[in-house]
Amino acid sequence: MAKKSSIETNNRRARLAKKHAAKRARLKAVTQDQSLPIEERFQATLKLAEMPRNSAKIRVRNRCEVTGRPRAYYRKLKMSRVALRELGGLGLVPGLVKSSW
């Protein structure tokens, strides 16, 4: 189980990223538009830099919903390999059959 503080920090980052997503996308589009004057693009870059760092989508870490583990994460199931194996062995994951031979 991951530390509660790490999980909460990541959740806070996800909320901030969702809240500021539209504004960040708008500013990013302005900075990349070559038809606009350089001064306007530079102002957009400065505004983008003033925004909170944790509002960037890239700072959100994929974590297991069950344990909070940040590594070996399956996006489709939103859990780590450890939790998947544990729940799969108990028969709690639909469609997952433990192989035996």
Automatic annotation (TrEMBL):
NCBIfam families: PRK08881.1
Protein name: Small ribosomal subunit protein uS14
Origin superkingdom: Bacteria
Swiss-Prot/TrEMBL keywords: Ribonucleoprotein, Ribosomal protein, RNA-binding, rRNA-binding
Pfam families from the UniProt entry: Ribosomal_S14
Main function: Binds 16S rRNA, required for the assembly of 30S particles and may also be responsible for determining the conformation of the 16S rRNA at the A site.
PANTHER family: 30S RIBOSOMAL PROTEIN S14, SMALL RIBOSOMAL SUBUNIT PROTEIN US14M
Family statement drawn from the similarity comment of this UniProt entry: Belongs to the universal ribosomal protein uS14 family.
Gene Ontology BP term (one): translation
GO molecular function, one term: rRNA binding
A cellular component annotation (GO) from this entry: small ribosomal subunit
Keyword RNA-binding among record annotations: yes
Quaternary assembly: Part of the 30S ribosomal subunit. Contacts proteins S3 and S10.
